[in-house]
Amino acid sequence: MKPQQELWAELPDGTRLAYSAVGQEAGNPVLLLHAWGESRRSFGRLMPLLPPTMRAMSIDLRGHGDSGKPPRGYSLDGMAADVVGFMDAIGLESAILLGSSSGGYVAQQAAVTAPDRVAGLVLVGSPRSLLVRPGFADEVEALVDPVDPEWVRRSLPWFPCFTPVPQEYIDDRVRDGANIPAHVWIRTLNGLCGAKPPTDAGIVACPTLILWGGKDSVLSRAQQDGLVAGIPGSRLVVYGDTGHLVLWEQPGRIAEDVAAFLAALE
Fold first, then answer.
1. Facing residues of 212 across strands?
2. Other C-beta atoms within 10 Å of 80: how many?
3. 20 to 30 A Cα–Cα from 18, which one of 7, 11, 84, 161?
4. Based on the structure, what is the number of domains in the chain?
């Protein structure tokens, strides 16, 4: 696969989104959407494993990574609009969206609000609903700038892993979190938890692959079964020895399943 290109796209409101791209220009590209509190670099272990014929782009969502960090725009609908705005900015008619954790929630919303732009979904440890306020929300609401890297590190046990993850990868995710201003942590969480679940708001009509960790203590099997029921024709693959952070634990298995999913689409 070609080396990653570090690029920028500008949204209609002037916010600039940083992104990395690998692979060839042909075919439907895959847009990689990271989780709340992370960045496009969370896909650093996955992208080199993807087929060289696949055009993949990992995006720093608004407020995260190297992208602009404006005071507003963090509703679920707003973040989904950013994905479509990104596609407009770089001239993509359609794309397959791969979302990790809450990035999959944003991907679902984009598929509901702009169905003609989303050719498929890969939902990696993604929720069906976030309407229940998480127990750590009060701690997030108390954040002030600059965000302490040690607070980020102490938050990691909220999402336990069951497969070894390289320490340098974990350290990089801590840097991701410390780089995010407090208002982005707070407003993004509120935007996600305050939104009507996408599969309640509309229909996801595109082919969908759902990857879930069987030891996920955040998202239950019942919620994943509800996600399958809410997306007609979707398919669930369970990684039995994996927790909520499927992307962290299983980049190789994800790459294999994504390649098979894309081959079936073609």
1. 238
2. 25
3. 161
4. 1
